[in-house]
Design brief:
8 helices, phosphoprotein
Amino acid sequence: MERTFIAVKPDGVQRGLIGEIIKRFETRGFRLVASKFMKASEDFMKTHYLDLKDMPFYAGLCKYMSSGPVFAMVWEGQNIVKLVRMMLGETNPADSKPGSIRGDLCINIGRNIIHGSDTLENAKREVGLWFKAEEFVEYTPCTQPFLYE
């Protein structure tokens, strides 16, 4: 099983989309293993988005992500990084297909409601940055035999 990091951004929180987003991942069959509701500092967000530090939007993104609460989560499942990226849609909602989270729920690239790890390596780094080992809940859902062979 893989793990991936997901964060509902301040725009998604303010719009009341946390439940809808969780529902989509649960319906797909993924398992939530950690979550927290928090307001991250700008310095923390600079660390999180360090791989984008040379991009022109980096400072604005870090400032925006620290402007309000975020809902951070770790989800687990087979091929989850790849599958979640497909579920999210394109970074620019205008390029996202209907049925994807961004395709259905947002309009503007600067307010695209959700962050998801883009690679397994970044997922491991982001999970470790946002969560301590003792914050994970280990359990076996009763539906697991109906999801995986």
